[in-house]
Design a protein that fits this description.
The complex is a heterodimer of chains A (348) and B (336). Chain A is α/β, with parallel strands linked by helices and 348 residues long. Helices cover 63% and strands 8% of the residues of chain A. Chain B has a 4-stranded mixed sheet. Classes of the chains: A alpha/beta (348), B alpha/beta (336).
Chain lengths: 348, 336
Amino acid sequence: MRLFTNISKEIILGWRSHFFLLTVTLAVAYFLLMTFLIPEDLSTNTQLILLTENEEIARAIEASDRSSEASLSFVSSRDELYESLNRSFSSIGIIMSGDTASPSFELIFQGHEDTKTRELVKLMVAHLLHGSNNQPISSDNVQYLQRKQDDGLDIPFNKSFLPIFLMFESIMMGMIMVFAMVFSEKSQKTLDAFAVTPGRAWEYLGAKVILLIILGIIFAIILTALAVGLQAKYLQLILIVSIGSFLSTSVSLIAASFYENLSQSMAAMLTLTVIFSLPMLSYYMEGFSPWYLRILPTFPIIFSLKGAVFPNQGSTEISGLILVAVEAVWAFVIAVNLYKLRMRRVRM
Amino acid sequence: MRMKRILSVFRIDTINGIRDKMVIYILVAPIIFSFFFRIIAPDFQSLSLLFVTLRDQRTTLESLEKFGSVELASSEAELKERVGRSDDSVAIYKEGESFNLFLQGNESEEIEEVAKIILAGLQSDNMRYLNFKESDQGRFVAPVTVFGFTFVVIISFVLGGMVIGFNIIEEKESGAMRALMVTPIKKSELILGRSILGIIIPLIQTFLAVLILDLPTMDYLKLIIVTIFSSVIGIVVGFLIGVISSSQMSGIANMKISGWLLLMPVILGFILPERLQFIFFWSPTYWSFAVLKDIVNHSINWSSFTIQILWICLTTAILFLLMMSRIKKGLQTYLN
């Protein structure tokens, strides 16, 4: 019963501080940003800019099957090639000259590419040059763990931001707001007053966690419904947001217990936010998932969010989510004990 | 206006900040970010792939290591389990005389295409007879380092501004303002004194980021100028948050909105192509990002630099003018 009283108190305070209005406004703002500002068809991959100075080579490349290589573009002169290289610092220039018997290749890199990228570009050039002579890959040599989706519906570039926005707001919204709630109550000595009531620390903190989970769910449902409609798995989404928000809020409660005011905690708050955001790099850059990102609890969350909002293009890693839930419970228990200590000091 | 009073406000803020360890935390946070970007930069290549292969296939491992990072699995089952995890990894292994490719099934077309090209390359060794001549454009700083550096600089002045804002809110709540009201200090002296820290901290952090990210051949004069001008953005927003927020709770809501408006143009500016960047021309942080990016890439001369600095000033001034009435109103209750 006390927990419900605490929750309704938090909801009233959150309402007065415009947290609900802010949540809805941000969800709509993110939707507008996704729909009207970010283009649908944009490739962020490295752009290969190709100049063929020999007709024979150009024909060989034409014969090559490059239907899916969206990042390949052609130019007709060296000036145009250098202009393109100067426009995009992640592009690589390729000049093909000579003839098919003795072709000559000039690769113009930006300078920051590592040897692996350079080798891969060389392999791509070789693949392009051999065109139709490339030994076709037997379907027996390519296997898929799950049925390959042949619906041709790749995630549009703008909507691919949806899991990132959900992560940033639904999951991590609590990280910043809980600091404000804790310090606001510290300055008003609410915790000191609460310490002399029969109320328990877990009820006090649990109410904050539940409010922030509710806000996270509201944001997730509004933004997901606007962006992908009924295509998403909403129950799964609510579960992921609840677990993620529980973890981030509990971790923030621990961090907030070490500071006296918001200004002091600003750097810690920001550091935590950035650390929890880091797995977005792996999401954004496919194939980049070093161990130091994989150990972060938000790593399985972002990919599970992808699985929930784009069920055909991703999957939810249940074991990863269970681990996050366990970590969230641990973080909450630690937070409760830290606040209990503080309340005990007040009682003494 | 007396310089002595301005410096006194600055001195008091610095002493309080050091005593509360606030200045230390603010200085440390961007340093951690710089170290992080330093660590990830070598691995964060836009064409890199994460491969998985069998532990006992030495030759396959050596071939794949040429193109990306490789993880090893002891058995085919372990290999498939690794590919099935949430991140994007592809398995390539030799079975008999041919190579097999194993994918999860939900990879992007680009990943699948590159994986198939590598598979075809391993099967036919089609690179062996080709000779490549390589040259480069002299841009040795990786895009992720450029982003990391600009992000650290922008975060440092945004953070500086937020601290100014929350100091004001706390002074309002604690009643410390009343004590200030009975001193001879003027509104302008207090604002200027309070702003000095918001400029010094970003300057220190910018130079620490240069050192940590190993960007020694920088045009330092341009860097100092852009950092000082950009810091004004943080200060304006900080004061705005401070004077319009009645409590820390509403302060955090205002910080959330202003942080979104300040940082989103920087993040999207990094991702979106140049032809679409006009949509952020209203944002002062976008112009800071653009100048910082060009300074790191050594692709800015003094005339373009001046124009971009003018854009920072213009957009910050517009922001200030739009908010002036609210700031004025807030300052009246803040300090008469």
